[in-house]
Amino acid sequence: xxxxxxxxxxxxxxxxxxxxxxxxxxxxxxxxxxxxxxxxxxxxxxxxxxxxxxxxxxxxxxxxxxxxxxxxxxxxxxxxxxxxxxxxxxxxxxxxxxxxxxxxxxxxxxxxxxxxxxxxxxxxxxxxxxxxxxxxxxxxxxxxxxxxxxxxxxxxxxxxxxxxxxxxxxxxxxxxxxxxxxx
Length: 183
Description:
The protein is an all-alpha fold. It has eight helices and no strands.
């Protein structure tokens, strides 16, 4: 019980810190949008992921949606610089929507994330392979939500093929630890 309480307190601290970062970047972006909008987008995506990690999926939706909107605008002006952030935030939004039971809405976002990461990892595999594998995992989750097990299995199989074994094992362990802490 004490470990669970400690983990909950740590999660709450992370959420507060992420909210503070968003507030700070929001203020900075109001004063100098060109300079601080990327930081705001990144902090919004991070806040969404922190909330998702706390199983607060409904709360995670707004910040990740805002991150996608910001990164779309940024990627229009400088695609090479902001395409990775867009791919990452699309993956986050697809994951959140899938976890909220909205897989039909998540599908085009998850597919777009996979497509973006596929192109990025072809250009720089060492840097983007993990993001590509994560986006394939999200796509698998979305296919599961749409009751399409063959597509889900294919996406997850591809993700495993692109993920080094030690990364996959660490992710499974983290997921098991997360479930053990939520009981």
